[in-house]
């Protein structure tokens, strides 16, 4: 049984359409897939429609990855099993999109002052109808020959403190958990092992996330060392958070793949146990291991 609760489509900074992501999930034998684009749920209906045309079972979990600000850090909070057609939730996500759009324009202005014109237009074309993100700016800079690769784009221009960085005006973690809960979902701290912070700050983040009403945290995600994974498990247990696991898939590659190595420790309660169909899933998983 493969469960992957963090993935992206072209509706944000992934490279596959929702239908292509569904097909990729089938290719990789994924059984449960959460689609969690940045600050949008635009790809979920298309993914569900694509799944309806296939014979192999695949449970699609409606999700989102909300951008938040916390003590100067950009922290992402996943909303899983959200009511993705809820009008109030959609209106709230639109405010995030507007903030994202404003930030993109400011980044483009800074890049123009640095002598690189036309980056917004190139990034917008790459994003299509989806959310425009820094990843699109990085890809645009690569395609324009301004940098050699995406990593260089962030190190030279887009990263924190660099020439084209613009401090985002995201919602708070408390707001994110409220939005998710009022949309019927559960709030999960995304990829905590990837934030550029000390262990002391990470402990504080997890504690404050739990205090803000967070339900779970990703204790398994890509490029996570065994020691860091154990640290996350221990912190989740300390604060009563459920366990979640996701690849944070953006495109097919040899380092990050859908459903790969995402087993959650038996010491944690899986986030899906709280969902209406979660108990049946857990029983099925238990049966597969006997």
From TrEMBL:
CDD domains: PHP_HisPPase_AMP
Organism: Fluctibacter halophilus
Top-level division of the source organism's lineage: Bacteria
Residue span(s) of domain Polymerase/histidinol phosphatase N-terminal: 3-70
Pfam short name (any one): PHP
Protein name: PHP domain-containing protein
InterPro entries named in the record: PHP_dom, PHP_domain, Pol/His_phosphatase_N, Pol/histidinol_Pase-like
């Amino acid at each position: 049984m493969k469960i992957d609760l963090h993935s992206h489509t072209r509706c944000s900074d992934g490279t596959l359409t929702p239908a292509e992501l569904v097909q990729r999930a089938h290719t990789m034998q994924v059984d449960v897939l959460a689609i969690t684009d940045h600050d949008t749920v635009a790809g979920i209906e298309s993914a569900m429609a694509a799944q309806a045309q296939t014979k192999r079972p695949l449970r699609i979990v409606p999700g989102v990855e909300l951008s938040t600000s916390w003590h100067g850090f950009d922290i992402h909070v996943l909303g899983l099993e959200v009511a993705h057609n809820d009008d109030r939730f959609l209106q709230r996500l639109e405010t995030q999109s507007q903030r994202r759009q404003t930030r993109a324009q400011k980044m483009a202005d800074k890049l123009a002052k640095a002598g690189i014109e036309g980056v917004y237009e190139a990034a917008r074309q790459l994003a299509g109808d989806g959310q425009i993100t820094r990843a699109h700016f990085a890809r645009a800079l690569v395609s324009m020959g301004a940098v050699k690769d995406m990593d260089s784009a962030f190190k030279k221009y887009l990263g924190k403190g660099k020439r084209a960085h613009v401090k985002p005006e995201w919602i708070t973690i408390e707001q994110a958990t409220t939005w998710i809960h009022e949309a019927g979902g559960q709030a999960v701290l995304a990829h905590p092992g990837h934030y550029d912070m000390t262990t002391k700050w990470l402990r504080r983040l997890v504690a404050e996330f739990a205090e803000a009403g967070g339900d779970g945290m990703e204790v398994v995600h890509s490029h996570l060392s065994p020691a860091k994974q154990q640290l996350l498990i221990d912190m989740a247990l300390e604060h009563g958070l459920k366990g979640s696991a996701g690849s944070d898939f953006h495109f097919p590659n040899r380092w990050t793949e859908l459903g790969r190595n995402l087993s959650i420790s038996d010491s944690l309660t899986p986030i899906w146990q709280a969902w209406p169909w979660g108990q049946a899933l857990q029983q099925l998983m238990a049966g597969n291991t006997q």
